[in-house]
Amino acid sequence: MNTIGSSGSLVTPEVWEGREMRQALANRDISDIYKLLRKHGVSQRQIAAATGQSQSEVSEILKGRQVIAYDVLARIADGLGVPRGYMGLAYDGATAVRATEHEPSGSPAEEDETVKRRKFLTHAAAVAMGASVFGAEEGEWMMSNAQTPAPSRIGMTDVQQIQAATKALRDLDYRHGGGTCRDAVVAQLNWARQLLHADCSEHVKQRLFVSLADMHSLAGWTSFDMGLMDPARSHFGKALQFAKQANDDSLVANVLYRMGRVYLHYQQPNEALKLFQLGQIAAQDSGSALTVAVMCANEGWAYGMLNRPDQVEKMLGRTRDEFARADLNEEPDWVKFFNRHDLHGMTGSVYDALAEFTPERYAPLAVSETLKSNQSYGDNMQRSHVFMLGMQATNHMRSGDVQQGIKVGRQALELGALVKSARVPDRLRPLQLEAAKHTMNPDARDFAEQVRTFREARSV
């Protein structure tokens, strides 16, 4: 029995069109779906690999365990190569993320996310430490094939076109948020991946790997910015593979840094720290002082969220030392964003994390650093400006300067309305909570309600 269809599905397309299978799909009866796959010669191991589940989970489902979490159903559909519409899953990924936010602790969705984090860390460690790049793991991170014809032979001009497209789309992301460009990044990426099949010199192939890694990294970042966690993880996984294939340690560190930032956003500092530490190994091997500085700063942020001030100061000290050693003219393009203004912003973020635990000591430091950062932002970095304004406003309030916090916070809301990013309402949550604490101040109460209304409108 042929169990691998030409499209990459576990079975031939005809199997999905069978009456029993279509009925099971329509009913979202995963147990029946798996039983029908077994009848067609698909093993439990193959089902587990395709859907990201363990074999024990697959076995439990075959015995009748129900699957009801939307994100799990969507992942099963995608993993099996089934159109989501067959299972009535006509919704976007951001909705799926929000739908599972209110599931009780210990739910299947929560357990699956833990498994996903562990799998990505394992994958990252394997790639970063020199495992085979295009071996057995590749299928888990594969994207769908594009249809637009590509040239049969390519040169550096073709690679430079990919680089130019990535730069233009990244500029849009920085300026207006991932919602303005994510689909364009994915579409461009689907075309660019076809160039892997073209004839070219070894030098061109190496640069192509670098360019594809960078574009996959951007696709992962813009997916994350829109709350699409599973696509983000898949793109970052492929970015790691291409960066390692290109022997570009700095780019490996870049991808690990960005995936670590994803986990920081979702309040998983321990998971983030593991990725930052893996990235630090690649950063050291790259010889780029600025790359090392970025990894140290983000390790400091994770330690701040863990309330480890001793480690925070150590990491901030190393960040400043490495930054002072860096030659910006010689550093890789991806890391050149980390200038003196961003150094202040990262330092402010670290102190903001510590201010959650000891506001009287660290909130004034966070204000000082974020203020320096905010004075430098232009229209080309609006999203970062929103984040830093919100952080500065929160720490003004923690320091007792409520009116100044309200003033700066309103600037954050005004600018945030121009940015298409699912992270904006999340990053403004601490500002809402801090304003709401000042119950005796009518301006603060009104402002807390204003932030709440803004966040709810942007979260729909």
TrEMBL record:
<protein>
    <submittedName>
        <fullName>XRE family transcriptional regulator</fullName>
    </submittedName>
</protein>
<dbReference type="Pfam" id="PF01381">
    <property type="entry name" value="HTH_3"/>
</dbReference>
<dbReference type="InterPro" id="IPR001387">
    <property type="entry name" value="Cro/C1-type_HTH"/>
</dbReference>
<dbReference type="GO" id="GO:0003677">
    <property type="term" value="F:DNA binding"/>
</dbReference>
<dbReference type="InterPro" id="IPR010982">
    <property type="entry name" value="Lambda_DNA-bd_dom_sf"/>
</dbReference>
<dbReference type="InterPro" id="IPR011990">
    <property type="entry name" value="TPR-like_helical_dom_sf"/>
</dbReference>
<feature type="domain" description="HTH cro/C1-type">
    <location>
        <begin position="33"/>
        <end position="87"/>
    </location>
</feature>
